[in-house]
Amino acid sequence: MVQDKAVVLRAGVVTVDALRQGAERVDTNDVLYNLSVQVSAGPAKQDQATINQLLAAVPNAHYALTFAQNILQAKTVGQTPKVERDPLAGNPLHGLVSGITAEDLYQILKINKH
Q: Which residues contact 75 (CB under 8 A, 6 or more apart)?
């Protein structure tokens, strides 16, 4: 279970279309499933140290981030948003976001877009 104050970072240029294209699946209501993200190991600050740690496995000059609670509390078309840990070899902070529309997630992420 990902804690509310865990930082969720999506690397790359973050647009609504990029979120759709990055998801494993998008349903007819524009809900994303298994969008690859980076998730801090526990509660963290949205500071440069956390950003550097999250970008270590996926270096990119562009990214957007938020706290997990902002995603988990989103009200999306009949879905319950989820942020799950999905560690990969060489990337223990990998995670997945599901159950939220591309537009809703973009609105959450655009606040901290770099």
A: none
What single string gives the DSSP state of each residue in 9-75? Answer: EEES---HHHHHHHEEEE-TT-EEEEEEEEEEEEE--SSHHHHHHHHSSS--S-EEEEEHHHHHT--
Q: Residue 100 pLDDT more than 80? A: yes
Task: Identify which of 79, 76, 2 has the alpha carbon closest to the alpha carbon of residue 38.
Answer: 2
Nearest to 13 by CA among 60, 77, 74: 60
> How close are the terminal C-alpha atoms of the chain, in Å?
27
Task: Provide the CA 61 distance to its chain's centre, in angstroms.
Answer: 16
- pTM reported for the whole predicted model: 0.94
What are the pLDDT digits (tens) for 31-79? Answer: 999 999 999 999 999 999 999 999 999 989 899 999 999 999 998 777 8
- Residue 41: both structure tokens together: 């190991």
